[in-house]
Design brief:
The protein is α/β, with parallel strands linked by helices. It is built from twelve helices and 19 strands. The strands form three sheets. The protein has a 14-stranded parallel beta sheet with strand order 1-2-3-5-7-9-10-11-12-15-16-17-18-19.
């Protein structure tokens, strides 16, 4: 990270104080500053810090400063190669060649450990890092690398090189537009024992390679996957995982991570399918939630409530029975759902969450109007008012509010049942004036509650 102006001022003052404490007057200090080659006498660690704050091309240019700096760039510990830094505004193909050649030569001449390596080609639809990427990864695997960030274009998809799995000292990984296979995965005993954060974007998973990868990271705490594509069975098991985010298209997902504090799961529709009726996700959501003990935040978006399995709920003559009583989630303070409040299955699932989250403070609902297999039939009006569901809720957010009967009934229930409610934010889809008047007349248990139509 670059030093702030305050930090630089403190550094200069510290040097001056040190010199004055050792008998140097301000006048002598000024003369010594003029006569002394300060740049060449900087400590090696500080020189490395300065270079790591510069664009890579400018860092190499410091070889002209002095003899001491001539080869300092060749031992930099943090490297970030950006394709945009090589844009000339003329021939993109020529810029690509210069960028690839520069990166090749830099890594070939580099001497010493590389703790952090970054590659960014997103801004330019650069095609075919191809063999270069495999060669660079091989070099990195021999340099005690601790952090890798490969931000490549989605048009430049690649299979993760086998040498990546030899980087056994990794602590942080961000990969984009890649394909995982089980062919080169290490056994759990030789995995990434220091890896704490794994971030993937637009990733294709073959077989259970993702589950095997997580299994090889015994200390993984954060798993963030955006744009997942998988037709295989994914089995993720981790006892150290704290933060989980999975968004994408998948057909089979089995999760066992009992100590999660934050969960975000979003299911997208496959663009190849003809319609929602052909989509199915084999993921039993409720047993997964019931296995959690420390969860603080739950977010379910996309079509996960529509197509994910909501056992232990069983439909019996248009009513849902709870087959297994979940435990209380005493740490759960935030729930965010993409939900059809007019569907009995989804509404009952949400109710079950609310009933077992006594310390819930924030509720965010993205409202979906879709055809309901089982309509709610006045579901929210029939809730027992003697049971205070929202006793600690402070903020409610409703997105894409249409003013349907189910949505109005839910809002009425919460307003009458939340004694400490402060704010209700509603983003509507062109509400009728009569609906707006109805909203403003609803009785509120909290005197401080305000309704904002955004």
């Amino acid at each position: 990270m670059p030093m702030s102006e305050t930090e630089l001022v403190r550094l200069v003052l510290a040097v001056k104080v040190y010199q004055m404490d050792h008998g140097s007057s301000p006048t002598k200090i000024c003369k010594s500053v003029v006569n002394e080659d300060i740049i060449s006498t900087l400590p090696e660690a500080l020189r490395d810090k300065i270079l790591c704050c510069l664009p890579i091309k400018e860092a190499v240019g410091t070889c002209l400063l002095s003899r001491t700096w001539r080869y300092t760039w060749a031992s930099m510990t943090e490297l970030m190669f950006r394709r945009a830094d090589f844009a000339s505004g003329n021939d993109n193909a020529d810029d690509d060649r210069r960028f690839l050649k520069f990166t090749d030569m830099f890594l070939f001449l580099h001497n010493g450990p590389i703790l952090k390596f970054g590659l960014n080609t997103i801004a330019n639809e650069m095609v075919s890092t191809g063999g270069h990427l495999y060669r660079w990864m091989l070099m990195l695997s021999r340099n005690k690398i601790k952090e890798i960030q490969l931000q490549t274009s989605i048009r430049d998809s690649y299979k993760v090189p086998s040498s990546f799995f030899s980087c056994d000292e990794l602590e942080y990984v961000y990969l984009r537009a890649c394909v995982f296979t089980s062919l080169h995965l290490p056994p759990p005993s030789k995995g990434f024992k220091q890896l704490h954060t794994l971030r993937l974007e637009y990733v294709t998973v073959e077989g259970n390679s993702l589950g095997d990868l997580v299994a090889s990271c015994p200390n993984l705490e954060k798993l963030n996957i955006r744009g997942l594509y998988s037709k295989s069975n994914i089995n993720i098991r981790s006892t150290k995982l704290k933060v989980l985010k999975i968004e994408g298209w998948f057909t089979h997902l089995n999760l066992h991570a009992p100590y999660l504090t934050s969960v975000w799961i979003g299911l997208e529709l496959n663009s190849d399918t003809d319609g929602a009726s052909t989509t199915r996700c084999n993921f039993n959501l409720s047993p997964f939630i019931a296995s959690l003990s420390d969860v603080e935040t739950i977010r379910f978006h996309g079509h996960i409530l529509e197509f994910g399995g909501l056992l232990p709920f069983q439909c019996v003559e248009h009513e849902f029975l709870i087959l297994k009583q979940p435990k209380l989630f005493n740490r759960l303070t935030e729930i965010s759902l993409e939900i059809n409040l007019g569907d009995l299955k989804e509404a009952n699932f949400a109710l079950c969450l609310f009933q077992h989250a006594p310390n819930l403070r924030f509720v965010k609902l993205k409202l979906i109007s879709r055809n309901s297999v089982v309509p709610t039939v006045h579901f929210w009006e029939s809730i027992d008012r003697d049971v205070c569901l929202f006793q600690n809720v402070e903020v409610l957010g409703l997105f894409d509010f249409t003013g349907s009967s189910a949505e109005l009934s839910f809002l009425k229930l919460l307003l009458e049942d939340a004694p400490v409610l402060r704010k209700v934010g509603i983003i509507d889809k062109g509400l009728h004036r009569n609906v707006l008047k109805y909203l403003l007349k609803l009785r509120r248990a909290s005197r401080d509650a305000e309704i904002l139509i955004l």
